[in-house]
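Predict both folds.
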Amino acid sequence: MLVTAAIRALTKSCFDHEGNLIQCVLFCSVQKMNFRNESCLSWLPMTYLTCLIDIWEEWIGLDNLEDYLNYVDYLIWVFTPLIIVFILPFLIVVFLYLSILFLHVYKRKNELKEAYSNSLWNGARKTLATLWDGHAAIWHGYEIYGLEKIPDEGPALIVYYHGAIPVDYYYFLAKLIIHKGRICHSVGDHFLFKVPGFKPLLEVFSVMHGPKEECVKALRNGHLLAISPGGVREALFSDETYTIMWGNRTGFAQVAIDAEVPVIPMFTQNIREGFRTLGGIRVFRWLYEKCRLPLVPVYGGFPVKFRTYLGDPIPYVPGITAAELAEKICPISLDFFSPRIRQSLQSNH
């Protein structure tokens, strides 16, 4: 220990007076050789390392490197949870792109079958549905109630609350494919069709950007169709109170009238506890109104319990106007949503 202290003192003296880093290192090396006759040689490598550390501390102006490293560790410990809650939602995007990659591989593998079959994508849909259903069960313990209210055949319009990330709707589609063998056409926002690489996924799962005529056509052809009247606005700017942001929209009601189909409300308990947004910050609302792009940060991905509820079908009434039907659907949907919203709020207290 005395030898180590002596070398440290000599090193500091060398650095102070000579001011030459290379000379100081060489000086330390010579001093190490001078003490080679000591009975215990195990201290020599550590002494040399200590010399270099002292030089580095003096050079960068740190009195104590250990304190600096402890401070860095503290910052990492503080910010790691914050980083994680913003990274987890991107795992859903990664999962979506993995699904797209699977579709590309599946298509290349079955190119010959495509010429002879109209149901090329059935196997791909069922495979992806199984994978998403597994994700739902493992991460969220996903359950669905009222799936029997979806007709085994024939059209229906499904109206649902839009979460920050509509992962509950993906899980619903998976259940529908697995248990009913049916596909539900979906109305998606325009920006989805601009996302690089998303085209195959949107086509295989029958997502449309929603001209009214196309929606009516899908229903008249006997398909199921799902619409979230609140859309991206509801996804980004609704909050943990589950505010329904339908405004004065009546387009979805007009679609149901023109196609003469029943309307089925749908809501997922705890969807806002799984994923949330920073939509309460005004600048993000201003950005959305200016460019109509979902630039609001999403955080969460928490493994909370999801339960999807399907309400009783609201039958078509001949002669009703779009405004009347929308007014009729909204209170019924609110009445249907409200108990589930209360359950979501109560489950977090």
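Second protein follows, with its predicted structure tokens after the sequence.
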Amino acid sequence: MDEMDKLDQMDDLDEMDEMPAEHLRTITTETESLTRSDEIAVGHLHTLVEEIESLAGDVNQLSLARHSLSSTATRQKGEVDIDPLRIVAKEMDSLTDNINQLLVSEHPSLNHAATYYTKAEGKRMRPMIVFLMSIATALCPKAPWTYDLTEKQINSSIAPIDVIKDGNPSTSLISNFSSPPDSAEPGPGVLPSQRRVAEITELIHTASLLHDDVIDHSISRRGSPSGNIEFGNKVAVLAGDFLLGRASVALVRIRNAEVAELFATVLANLVEGEFMQMKNTIDDEQVPQWSEAAFSYYIEKTYLKTASLISKSCRAAALLSRASATIVSAAYAYGKYLGLAFQLVDDLLDYTRSNEELGKPAGADLELGLATAPLLFAWETHPELGALIGRKFAQEGDVARAREVVGQSDGVEKTRALAKEYCERAIAALDTFPKSDAKDGLVKMAMMTLHRKK
């Protein structure tokens, strides 16, 4: 091979050496370009994600604001289109049977008297509220808890059976309550302990009706002769005591100290409220003068006699749901304001409805010497009512004159306005609850309370 051929061969080899290097540079350049493109793309992606997150936050805030505005508008218009009874129909269907299971006695006459009011079913508002509150709080944030009670524990005694000696023929002298049939098992969101709270609430309320009818010399209840008329005062009082006794046993078996304390104070509150009602007004003068204190006295009495049971049963339901302290307090507030509103409406219906519409004597409060909200509001602008209140409308013509003055005043309208304010407070207390049918049911219960006719 001559020198020229060797040089040509070397040039070819150099070109071959340069080709991979050039190719490598091309690949490197392309890679760097792609990397820069990826970085740009990733940058755009991060920017897009941030924008989406920001937008999502705005949308979430907008959604919350829209829901809040919608809820407010709905509340103002009274357009919560839901049937509370439908939500808790299963629990309500078995309520009377479950209560009667708690009341079985070996004495037939006591059985009859004890179940007289439970069989003549009334509004059943209180247990319905407990059921709704149980379901609504089941969705709330939970507080620490140790265990949930079983159906068997709820129906079992704590003390030895031979010590209790509870003569209940349905259990062959065994002090355990009969378990409900399978069809009466609690519905979704309602624990056995919460169902028992609903039953206890109705037992205490029914016992208070038996006792109140004796104190007030009532002649009818729920369209039938009142317990004191049907059985006499002694049996009516004893029947009420029996209901409270059975409620106490059921309460202890829930095995929750705060729940037991709540209902124990309810019983004391009922008695305290009755004593306040006997006095009628804070002013001991023979001719009392209107004052803010007189109205505050009435509101305190109303809480003790009516709102205490509703508010504390709501709190008990929330406690047994393991709800947070905030939710438990909100449940109590809802029950308190709803209870006050309920009694205010009850008091104004006494002035605006007939015996047939109410299912009990209309105008009974004045006949009993009681000064309720419509009359107290009227008293502020009609001082002459002070003398009538002082003698508890005992003179001939006092009742008629009092009704006439209330009719001429804005007492009924002011009472309705105050009831509306309390209903709004009850609904506002539910703002911390998550959205659910049960929550809407509680809202609807407040609206129904304001617009009820009996």
